[in-house]
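Assess this today:

___
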Amino acid sequence: MAITPLMPVYPRSPVRPVRGEGVYLYGEGGEKYLDFASGIAVNLLGHGHPHLTKAIQEQAATLIHVSNLYGSPQGEAYAQRLVDLTFADTVFFTNSGAEAVEGAIKTARRYHHHHGNPHKHTLITFKNAFHGRTLGTISATDQEKLRDGFAPLLPGFKVVAFDDLDAARAAVDEHTAGFLLEPVQGEGGIRPASPEFIRGLRETCDEKDLMLVFDEVQCGVARTGKLYAYEHYGVEPDILATAKGIGGGFPMGAFMATEKAAVGMVVGTHGSTYGGNPLAMAAGQAVLDVVANEEFLAHVSRMGERLRGALEQMIPNHDHLFESARGIGLMLGVKMKTDSRAFVTYLREHGLLTVAAGDNVMRVLPPLVIEEAHVTEFVERLSDAARRYEAPRAG
C-alpha cells in the first residue's frame, strides 16, 4: 500500500474542518462542532477573531519576513511589551513550543558554561511531562511512546516524580544545571503542581545557583486566568518557554529569561531564520491587546469557575464514566473511569471537540472568549452524549 502524501504519523479523526467562527468549527460537509479543544490550547480567541484577523491581514500586506540579519522594530516592540508584562528581561522568538523549550534548555546550560562550570549541564525533569517532539525535548521525558525508535537520545536529563519535592532535591548533584517543568502538566493529564513544590524548587535554585525553567507552552498566555501560570505560585522562574496561545493560531513561540539567566546568550549562540518575523509579531501583539488586562483575565477565571462547577455538578449523574474535574482557569481536565481517548472520539462524532491526555483524562480547553451560554451548551451536550455512550468492552 502506497504511503499517503501527508506523512501518516497522526491517527486523524473524521473531523475535517474548513471554516471556523467564534467557538465553532465547520467541516467540509457543513458539520458544526463546538470547539472546546482550541487546536490544543492554541485558538484562545476562537476562530476568525476580528482584531487578530485584521492585524495579520494588514501586516501580511506590509511586510512578512526579512530574517534576523536586520534590525526588527516589530520584534523590539513586542519583546518590550512581554518584558513589561512578565518577570523577564529579554526574549527570543521561535516558531513553535518545542523550539522555545530547546532554547530554554540551551540558555540554562549556557548560564553555567559562562560561569566556568560546563560540567553543570543536567536538567532535572519530571514524570509524565511533555516538552515537544524534537530529539532534545523527547530526551527530557521518560515517555517511551515519544522516545521509541529514536535512540540514541541526548544526555543531560534526569527524570523524577512530579510534585515530589524530596525526590527533586535528592536528584541534585554536581552536574545539575536546574529544573525543567510544566507548572501545570497538560499532556500529562492537567496536573497543577502544588505551591509547596514550586516554592521549594525556587528555594533550591536560589540556594545552589541553579536555573528554574518553566515550560508554559500550554498553560501560558491567560489560559489559567493569569497571563502566565507562575503568577499563581508567587514564584518567578529564571527562564520560561511559551507558545501555543501566544499567536492565537499563528505559529509562534518564545523563550524569556532574566538578565542573570541570559548572561551567556550572546552573539552567535542561538538563531532562527523565521523566528520573530513581522507577521508573527503582529499576531502576538493583537493577542496581547485582547488578553493582557485584568478584565479579560477575570473573565477567564470566572468562566473557568462556571465550567468547572457545571462539570462537577454533572459528574455524579454519570459516575460510571466520570470521576472528577481538575485544573485552573480554562485549562481543565475530567478524570475518567473509562478510556478517555475512546470517549473523546465518540464526542467528535456528536459535534463536541475535546482533547485526550495522559492519566486517562479528557482535556477541556475552550477558547478563552467563551460566554456562559457556551458553558451551558457544552455541559448539556456532554451530559447527553454521556447518557448515550456505551463504553467499549475491554478485550
About this structure: The two ends are 28 Å apart (CA to CA). The mean pLDDT is 97. The longest strand covers residues 322-328. Residues 294-314 form the longest helix (21 residues).
